[in-house]
Amino acid sequence: MHLHASGGNLLFVVVPVLVPFFQRHSTGPRDGLGDDVFRCDELLAEPHTSLGHAYFHEFNWPAAAREFKRGLELNANYAIGHFYFANYLLAMGQFQDALAEARHAKALDPISLPARSNTASALYYCGQYDLAVEQCLQVLEIDPKFARTYEDLGRI
């Protein structure tokens, strides 16, 4: 079965099913992680982005958004922050905003294959399939062994 963003999205089928499971079986990032991260420096973008990423994987959406946004407030030129915030926005169904973040990450780190692949995914979820394929082919020109691109092409 091939699911397009317009005809249904596997992400929106899987996430509601898995969230209760992970909430019951997870220790959560606040079991010491948050405090340890911020012992480094409250004013660095990296710890906020890392904590946001941990919250993202715990399906704690409000905390993830808060930490990603704080990290980007502290360093708007942190490509990895834009990369992970784009993933968060994709999970929230905010496809156009995710595409803008993915493109921003790619502009900040144009040689990053994950950033380019993330842009392809965002293009796909925005329904811009031709541009998504074009982005994937550009990645494969740089590195024909970059596995995620084949996953992206298979999705498209």
Could you characterize what this model shows?
The protein has 156 residues and is mostly helical. It folds into two domains: 9-76, Serine Threonine Protein Phosphatase 5, Tetratricopeptide repeat (Alpha Horseshoe), CATH 1.25.40; 97-156, Serine Threonine Protein Phosphatase 5, Tetratricopeptide repeat, CATH 1.25.40. Helices cover 71% and strands 0% of the residues. It contains nine helices and no strands. It has helices at residues 10-25, 33-37, 45-57, 61-74, 79-91, 95-108, 113-125, 129-142, 147-155. Helix 5 (79-91) runs parallel beside helix 7. It is globular and about 40 Å long. The relative contact order is 0.10.
Describe the structure concisely.
The chain is built from nine helices and no strands.
Q: How are the SSEs placed, and which strands pair?
A:
Layout: H1 10-25, H2 33-37, H3 45-57, H4 61-74, H5 79-91, H6 95-108, H7 113-125, H8 129-142, H9 147-155
Helix pairs in contact: 3-4, 3-5, 4-5, 5-6, 5-7, 6-7, 7-8, 7-9, 8-9
Global geometry:
globular
| Major beta sheet summary | none
This entry's quaternary arrangement is single chain
- The value of Rg in angstroms is 16 Å
How many beta-strand elements? Answer: 0
Number of domains: 2
Q: What is the C-level CATH assignment of the largest domain?
A: Mainly Alpha
Q: pLDDT under 50 segments (min length 5)?
A: 1-26
The proportion of strand residues reads: under 5%
Overall pLDDT level: 82
CATH architecture of the largest domain: Alpha Horseshoe
The CATH topology label of the largest domain is Serine Threonine Protein Phosphatase 5, Tetratricopeptide repeat
Structural class comes to mainly alpha
Order of helices and strands, N to C?
A: HHHHHHHHH
Instruction: State the helical fraction.
Output: over 70%
Measured between the Cα atoms of the first and last residue, the distance is: 12 Å
Number of helical regions = 9
